[in-house]
Structures are given as structure tokens and as C-alpha cells.
């Protein structure tokens, strides 16, 4: 059966992904456990010092011996901040599993899926709000720390706290050693929804990086005010992308 939907272009899909990145603030950050023989405690550019707390040592002592090479993904806060918001900002805690794995050489992925707002209008289309039809994507890359001068110049902490007002474990806190970092995105895999109406493929990194603020503001995702599902595309606003 021939679909009556128009598959969005790669650029349109990149715009939708960047809007999701801006509106959302929680994703699943995944890494891979290193070989058990790999040294965990070390000085490098991921944070200010090695892992020394007894809490961290206890966590390591209970780690299964055969876990090497297995992936792990857990919920993580992020925010689109700074001069390059396409590289999401994270508040890294040195004892966190993903930080330890990244220090040991693991790349990372940050995965997001779209949740329609509570105000989304009802629809006669039974598939419109189906999780299988909602867009999601995965960012592939690595973690780097953010220089102090950039944190001050671009208000990284203030930007992050706008999204996560309850956070009290910012750098210098009495709970855990933490530091500001970002995921340097090197690949974007987009899964826009059902294949008869959405694009499912890799988005070129330059398309991801060159989406403009104006495009992000004009775009609409399913359930947002101004969203229209029709034969003209996946997520269109009044004037079109």
C-alpha cells in the first residue's frame, strides 16, 4: 500500500531533533564498562581529580567481574547551553558510572524521546500519540569538561539551573565532587516515527550543527500548539519549516 504521507527531509528532521533537544532536559546516557584490568582511578581532563571517596570504592568493589564490555544506560540531566547548544551540557559527578567508564575510554550516547505535553489535544488518529509513532533520537560522541572561562562567560550554571531548579550538587557542593561537562556530538541517529510518514536514518553532523534558532522556534512537534499532521509532512507549523 502506497503511503499518502510525505517523508520529511533530512534538514526538517534535524530541526525537529534540535527542538526536542532544547525543550527536553532529561535523557538516557549510555556508556560501556571497561575491561576489569583497566585502571579506573586516574587524572585526566574529565573533572578535577581522581575518584577517592569511600562511596566510589564501595561501588567499584561490588561491580561484577564479568561486566566488561557491557553497555549501561541511566537517566541523566542535561541542558542545551553555551555557544554550541547542539553539544548538550551535563553536570558530571565524578563517582557516576558513566564518568568512570568515560575516563576509561568509553564513548557515550545520549538518547531522547518526545513526550507530548499534557495540553496536547485529543486526536481521532489512534496512532498519533502512540510511543512507536513519536520521534526519538540518539546522540553519539564523547564527554569533555567545559573550561572555567566559558562557564562564566556564557552562564553555563545559570542556564542549566533554569531547567533543573532542584539541583544542589553543583561544583563546590558538600555532597559529591562535580564539574561542568558536555557531550561532543559526532553522530545523530534519528527515528522520527512510523516509516511511512517519518524519516529514520543518520543525520549528517553539519545539518545538526547548522540548524538556526529561528528554525527551532518555528518548528512544532506532535502535541504542541500549531502542530498539524497531514499529507504534507511529519511535524509542520503554520508557515512550514
Draw up the topology in text.
Blueprint lengths: L9 H14 L2 E7 L21 H8 L9 E7 L11 E5 L3 H7 L4 E6 L22 E10 L2 H6 L2 H8 L14 E14 L8 E4 L1 H6 L2 H6 L9 E3 L2 E4 L5
Antiparallel strand pairs: 1-2, 1-4, 3-6, 4-5, 5-6, 6-7, 8-9
What can you see in these coordinates?
By secondary structure, the chain is of the alpha+beta class. It is built from seven helices and nine strands. The chain has helices at residues 10-23, 54-61, 97-103, 148-153, 156-163, 205-210, 213-218; strands at 26-32, 71-77, 89-93, 108-113, 136-145, 178-191, 200-203, 228-230, 233-236. The strands form two sheets. Strands 1, 2, 3, 4, 5, 6 and 7 form a seven-stranded antiparallel sheet that branches. It has a two-stranded antiparallel sheet with strand order 8-9. The longest helix is centred in the first third of the chain and has 14 residues, at 10-23. It starts with 9 loop residues before the first helix and ends in a 5-residue tail after the last strand. The model is unreliable at 39-44, 48-55 and 230-241 (pLDDT under 50).
Structural class: alpha+beta
Strand residue content: 15-25%
Average pLDDT reading: 86
Q: How is the main sheet built?
A: 7 strands, antiparallel
Q: Give the beta-strand count.
A: 9
Helical region count?
A: 7
Unreliable residue stretches: 39-44, 48-55, 230-241
Helix content: 10-25%
Oligomer: single chain
Question: Termini, distance in Å?
Answer: 28 Å
Q: Indicate the overall shape.
A: globular
Task: Specify Rg, calculated over alpha carbons.
Answer: 20 Å
Amino acid at each position: 500500500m502506497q503511503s499518502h504521507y510525505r517523508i520529511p527531509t533530512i534538514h526538517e528532521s534535524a530541526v525537529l531533533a534540535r527542538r526536542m533537544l532544547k525543550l527536553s532536559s532529561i535523557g538516557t546516557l549510555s556508556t560501556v564498562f571497561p575491561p576489569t584490568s583497566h585502571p579506573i582511578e586516574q587524572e585526566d581532563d574529565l573533572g578535577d581529580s581522581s575518584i577517592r571517596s569511600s562511596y566510589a570504592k564501595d561501588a567499584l568493589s561490588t561491580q561484577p567481574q564479568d561486566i566488561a564490555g557491557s553497555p549501561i544506560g541511566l537517566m541523566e540531566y542535561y541542558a542545551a547551553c553555551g555557544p554550541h547548544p547542539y553539544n548538550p551540557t551535563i553536570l558530571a559527578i565524578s563517582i557516576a558510572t558513566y564518568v568512570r567508564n568515560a575516563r576509561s575510554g568509553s564513548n557515550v550516547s545520549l538518547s531522547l524521546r518526545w513526550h507530548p505535553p499534557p495540553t496536547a489535544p485529543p486526536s481521532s488518529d489512534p496512532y498519533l500519540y502512540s510511543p512507536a509513532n513519536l520521534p526519538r533520537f540518539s546522540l553519539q560522541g564523547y564527554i569533555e569538561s567545559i573550561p572555567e572561562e566559558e562557564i562564566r562567560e556564557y552562564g553555563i550554571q545559570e542556564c542549566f539551573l533554569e531547567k533543573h531548579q532542584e539541583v544542589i550538587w553543583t561544583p563546590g557542593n558538600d555532597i559529591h565532587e562535580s564539574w561542568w561537562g558536555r557531550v561532543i556530538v559526532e553522530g545523530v541517529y534519528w527515528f522520527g516515527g512510523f516509516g511511512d510518514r517519518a524519516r529514520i536514518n543518520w543525520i549528517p553532523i553539519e545539518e545538526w550543527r547548522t540548524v538556526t534558532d529561528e528554525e527551532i522556534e518555528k518548528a512544532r512537534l506532535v502535541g504542541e500548539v500549531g502542530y498539524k499532521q497531514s499529507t504534507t509532512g511529519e511535524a509542520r507549523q503554520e508557515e512550514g519549516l
